[in-house]
Amino acid sequence: MPNKIRIFVASPSDVAIERAKVDKVVETLKPTADHLDLILEVVKWENAVPDMGRAQQVIFDQLQPTEWDLFIGILWHRFGTPSGGEDAEGNDFKSGTEEEFHAAYQLWKKHDRPRMMVYRCKRDLPMDKIDIKQYQRVDKFFSEFNATKGEHPGLYMEFKSAEDFERKLTRDLQEVFIGYGKKEGKETVLPPPPKDTPPNHLPRRQDFFGRKNDMKRVLGALDPKERTWGVVIDGIGGIGKTALAVEAAHRAKDEGLFKSFLFITAKDRHLSVTGIIDKTPTALSLDDFLNQTARQMGEVGIAKMESSQKAEALHQALQKASTLLVYDNLETLPAEDQEALAEFLRYLPEGSKAMLTSRRRGGEGALWLRLDKLSWDAACAIIENKAKQDENLRKKLDKTGENLWKELYKESNGSPLALNHILGLMRLRRTLSVKGALELLRGGSGNEDILKFVFREAEKELDESDNAALTALALFEPSAPYDALQEVSALSRNALNMSLDRLDALSLLADAGEDRYALHPLTSRYAKEFLEEADEIKQRFAAYWLSYAERYGGSSHNYATFPKLDAEWKNLQKTLDNYWEQTAFNGEAVGNSNALRFINRLLDALRVYFYYSRWDELIQWSTRAYEALHATGDWRNAGEWAFDVAWVYVNRVETKSADRWAERCATAWEQAGIKKAKAAHLRGLIAKLKGWYDPAESFYQRALATYQKANDDENISIILYELGNLEQERENYPAAEKHLLQSLVLAKKVKRVDGQASILNKLSRLAIKRGNWKSAREWVEKSSPLAELTGMQDEIALNKYHMMKIHEYDGNLVLALSLAREALVAFERLRISDEDLEETRELIVRLEGKLK
Question: Is residue 388 domain-shared with residue 356, that is, in the same domain?
Fold first, then answer.
């Protein structure tokens, strides 16, 4: 009977790479173990099954220290977190690793088992991550190995790198295993170690035609002299991305550019001339890609590490040999995984590179290559090659001249997949001639293009999933993000990928850029026919964008996420337009109250976003919402939208319009039986706009009293800000500064970054008015990054306005002119203030005159 050797590994998180090396070393030594009739098993706390109780005790209960034959401890600068356990004297263990060591050591003292092997990492400490208390505990732990004074005397081994640890552990374990073998009377002459051959996991080489210029660019980017991390090959389905990548990798191997070659794909289905063929997917997530990379490199331990540690471990492993990573079909990964993978590739060690294929654009730091249609020469080579493989096809092609071959190429739109597809049909359908294939491609009419043929052929073959994907795509404007498309189509990831592969290979899809999918215009016209009976898909489309708006907009100030709303504005706008049409509002009555409720909810999610960057849209949709809600008697919400319209007109200094909408706001809230401090606030804004300073102050004080009674610090800050503005216009600068500084304190307290940006901006203006240019610069330099962070276009413009005045005062006329021009563009778009707008125009004229 073979002996089983159970190896327990104890270590904190900072030596995760070495922890993974234990698995690799044990795997490498299995031939030695087999020779000595030993079975090796590595156990770690991760092998424990979740259960209730103190975590370390759960680990001990399941992994039984009494069954450990070898204990391997590894420490660097972290000692770990307290385990909640204590020793026999009642002393708390400082970490799980310490408690594991203690348990093993007590067993060793009693039973001379397990064998204790402890290693200390001595590489340079990461000073940005070091915890001095943790490091002191590590230092004290190793001081206890002192033979005369230590609590646990013994010998430990130091190492300086993961490779050094791997070498020393391999040597040490081999000696330990030989000792086990001697006890059992086994021969000590070991079999020779397996040859360390560099891994090569490239797919089998296939026939390859054309793409000479593309191949030259790819191989140029893969040259170690080029300062890129590699190549991203992008293009529509069926254009030959994977074929180019595989052939380029084989040529790089022939030229000796790399020692190791890895190939990992996320494609789980393949469209052939006979249909969709299921394949076993290699990787469907970032974790899968990293795990497969580790396994193909022989680093089995890395695949068992926590996700956050794998990238660093792989970077270290890749330093041993120059490696070409070929990652295929990356568009199937979620967006966040693609971003993380790109970050991993940016830091590949020198000598290693990557080649990616995707239907999406991308590749910062790499060569981006967009594949276009095949050249005629390459297409001709494909036709000739297919003819060699089938005598029946050869006879059909020989009967025609090259002109008809060119027609096949032209009608297949230069796609190798489409060309191969039609040639395959000719081979499979004995009666299908070249002319018949052309007629099939043309749909029976010389005026019809490949898309119509493809759509008609696809329509015959579309299954339920394909129809769902096609219908969903017809709703998006102008294109669909993958995750949105999956949710709206209600398809699983695999089903959607299969449908996209089918639609894409048949040229139903247009190039929509990274992470996005769209139908060709002709396809879209056909697909819209499916929308007539697609109520469920339409509802999912609306629900998706409502959820999206609430996630990235909402009533809170999620300004950091507003770029996501910008990116999808056309889809959000389409959702609003669709539901506004469904309200059937005729100016007097609403035909569909459910649609109106949806509109109100979606607009509410977009309200703050509109405030920050889309004032025209805020007026447009707030006006519509007010009128429809007014017609239904929803006075509370009608008043809210009237307030928003008035607010924009106040900021645009359009007094009459602001006054009119303020009256509508107040009337609606009176109808609702509520008296809002917001209404007093709005009245104060308009009174100040008219120059009625005393009434304005009265309105503000009324609102302030209400907010103070409610301890509403956020709105107190806002009213103090307005009082500061008022006193500034009165030229009572000390009072203005006092109000603004009080407002700033509260804005910081409630963590309103946008409020802080506005207040700091106003303090800058106040300093300019007082001629305190140093303070003005300090305030605007504090405001600018906050305004940029929030995306507040009005505050960004005003910061530029203030800086242009500061630069003019300092004599930096070129900078002043540049900022004035930028501010003018923003002022004209937002129509913020006639006074600021005119002064900016005057400054531009003045500076241009001085700089001539």
Answer: no
561 lies in a domain? no
- Please give the span between the terminal C-alpha atoms of the chain, in angstroms, as a whole number: 97
Beta strands in 147-238 (DSSP E): 157-159, 230-234
Q: Where are the beta strands (DSSP E) in 787-840?
A: none
Structure confidence by residue, pLDDT tens digits, 675-698? 678 888 888 888 888 889 999 899
Sheet (strand 260-265) strand order = 260-265, 323-328, 353-358, 230-234, 367-370
C-alpha distances out from residue 594 to 89, 181, 541, 575, 620, Å: 70, 80, 16, 14, 21
Q: What is the pLDDT of residue 626?
A: 94
Average pLDDT over every residue of 105-132: 86
Find the domain containing 799 and state its range: 752-852
Q: Residue 445: what pLDDT? A: 40
- Domain tally, the chain: 5
Quick check: is 299 in a domain? Answer: yes
Please give the structure tokens belonging to residue 694: 């005393």
3-state secondary structure of 89: coil
271 pLDDT tier (thresholds 50, 70, 90): very low
Give 657-660 contacts, CB < 8 A, sequence gap 24+: 658/685, 658/686, 658/689, 659/686
Provide the CATH number for the domain around residue 848. Answer: 1.25.40.10
DSSP state of 49: P
Asked if residue 187 has pLDDT above 70, the reply is no
Rounded alpha-carbon distances, angstroms, from residue 76 to 73, 80, 309, 662 = 11, 11, 16, 67
CATH number at residue 40: 3.40.50
- Residue 213: the pLDDT is 79
The pLDDT value recorded for residue 444 is 39
Do residues 32 and 117 share a domain? yes
Last residue of a domain, one of 504, 533, 562: 533
Instruction: Give the least confident one: 6-15, 497-506, 786-795.
Output: 497-506
